[in-house]
Amino acid sequence: MKAEHCLLLGSLCSAISVSSYAFDMLPADFTWMGNGTTVGLAYFAYQDASTLKVDGVGKVPQSDAQVYAGILRAVRWQEIAGYKTVMQTFLTSGYVDKATVGGTDQPDNSGLGDLNFGFTVYPMASNEPTGTTLTLSGYVTAPTGDYDVGKVNIGAGTWIFTPQIGLIQGLGNGFLIDAAYDVGFYKTTDHNGFEVKTDPASQAQIYLRYQPSMQTNYAVGVSKKIGGKQFLDDQYTGMKTDVTQLRLTTTHAFQNGLIATGMLARDVQVEGGFKNDISVLFRIGKAF
Prior knowledge:
- By secondary structure, the protein is mainly β.
- It has a single domain (3-287), classed as Beta Barrel (Lipocalin).
- Helices cover 6% and strands 64% of the residues.
- It contains two helices and 20 strands.
- The strands form three sheets. It has a twelve-stranded antiparallel beta barrel with strand order 1-3-4-7-8-10-11-14-15-18-19-20. Strands 12-13-16-17 form a four-stranded antiparallel β-sheet, with helices on one face. Strands 6-9 form a two-stranded parallel ribbon.
- The termini are far apart.
């Protein structure tokens, strides 16, 4: 395969990061909500990128992408045999409004994405002002979304297992630290006659949260993703997961039981992918 052909296919088969919204931890996400609590969540997101950087090559001129994403999620907090646990499932979807590489519009697989399942155990859980909450989670992503080498895809095109550790540490006076670290392990698969392989990709997230009341919080945070090199027939495509992102969030709980969260983010460093000038996320949830 020619290097130019491999590079182009690598750019196209790189999934627009819709599923990553679900793994993007938001402040207070690891709070123990009480035995038997069920929360339904809907995510709406938009990302706008005007730069594509290929590892070892640099910026690809006349490249940009605009993507709308949605996620439906159900989460249940449940005590099982004396252990605090969380069971959840979520389905991603997305619409690629524009994807251009080197001035050429690219084909895409918009629509439903991947189905995910998660299970969490709480070794520690505290809602005290200086208390500590620790979570251990595992997620399985099933490749239910369409995927084709040579297209911009919403789905990842393979099975993924993602273990995650989460932390909430109260600092007192309404301040808390929210943090998470996860690693995604990808199954090597064949697509359109090509062997598609992705190295493990990890993500570290941390927020400083200020909670002036039980109903409202504000936070500033940073996310760092590394790894995830992509290969076609053992040839590195120049695409990987190496992103540093800054975030601002706010959450408010309404008297009718609705919980709304907004996030504004910007990528400040990217290697091997699209760099988002702006990412906007709105999430609304309802406890039952």
